């Protein structure tokens, strides 16, 4: 059997290694148009910023090591320019000597990845503007920094690469502006959760500009660009990074008649097979099914790509493995914070007209009395009818990855929020709490499902009517230290029983505290005494960060 693989990074390299483990007899050739294979592209910004000091650490395998360990013929600087499905062959151009040749196959695997989106902005093609996809891109950015020693850099795009490059420049002592056309960074999470990230970015001295797009670029000299923005402002910068997103690399597949989906990615079945039974495709170039909706999606993440590569190799050898959808589990470091998510966010659920309920908790990463505890802010989204987990988001300095990973497993297992109450997670004061963040979120969700709590959310607070009263149950000192919502009356929760006669019974009481816990205590007191009330889920902390 002869297997050809186009693309030598996550999906392609995984498929090549798996194929060899399944057969010593197969002829396996992997083509990569760049000079490197199996490199850690997720680590590129961290080498630029200095966290990963050795460039060699990014090179997980070389053509020589791949040959030695897996007996795979790795051909770097060889670009596949055409696929002849009828003759089961490909046309290849050697980018070193310019020669062309034909290679036949029994099975072909496509793993071309996704390319950075660079919009047609006037002046964008200049010597100081870069995108970041591979090691040569990284090398060019490092060389520009070393040669020009820019005092200011601009990053366009607030996704993973944009945020990581922003932090890299900050670590290098370069003043940085981050432009994001949307009203938030990190679109996998919802705006109120992104607010925590906005606060962190601003606290580090980065010039964050939301709702602002880049309109035009003018190169003033060999070290300076003038950027024209959508708000009619102009800024001068010494280095421009375009990181507004990626799109699947599908030109080769489309030219060969491989079917593409509505989103522009290669269409595959559950076995990673295209409409040609002898051609498989994996990774960022394909449309894979979403775990929650079952609809096709584009999820450019390394984890799915690696698993898909392995499964495609299995199926080439007749294993009949099925890929079981993509949850989109992801995490990003933003200075001292981690921001992570799994499943669908609220924006996506609204777009799909999927009914949902949400809860927020803000609680300690481990026992609060043990030194070093940090607040984990967790948003849990679930179906109000089935209790199934639709998605989750978390932000904090510690323990964020643990909680999202647990919820990713729970979602894939089909667990409900009722079952989340019973999760038995590790507890010792340095590591967790007797009631973990996840347990607490489940308790809040089940209170709502069982009618023990009536929620109100941050985006409803500013629309309260004359028939409602806003009640702040925090201590007066907290109002002075962290702020308050205008128009609220303040009765601390510990005084509420004695002062309940100050609250009229003919109006609905909208209760809030700092994170929602004391608000729930107050809510139960009031409804048990005949009042109509609702509690602000997530409290003032959620409300105020939604405005950041």
Automatic annotation (TrEMBL):
Metal-binding keyword on record: no
Source organism superkingdom: Bacteria
Keywords of this entry: FAD, Flavoprotein, Oxidoreductase, Redox-active center
Flavoprotein is among the record's keywords: yes
Required co-factors: FAD
Any matching Pfam family: Rhodanese
Boundaries of every Rhodanese domain copy: 464-547
Molecular function terms from GO: oxidoreductase activity
Gene3D superfamilies, per the entry: FAD/NAD(P)-binding domain, Rhodanese-like domain
PROSITE patterns xref list: RHODANESE_3
Family, per entry: Belongs to the class-III pyridine nucleotide-disulfide oxidoreductase family.
Protein name: CoA-disulfide reductase
Organism: Vibrio algivorus
Lineage: Bacteria, Pseudomonadati, Pseudomonadota, Gammaproteobacteria, Vibrionales
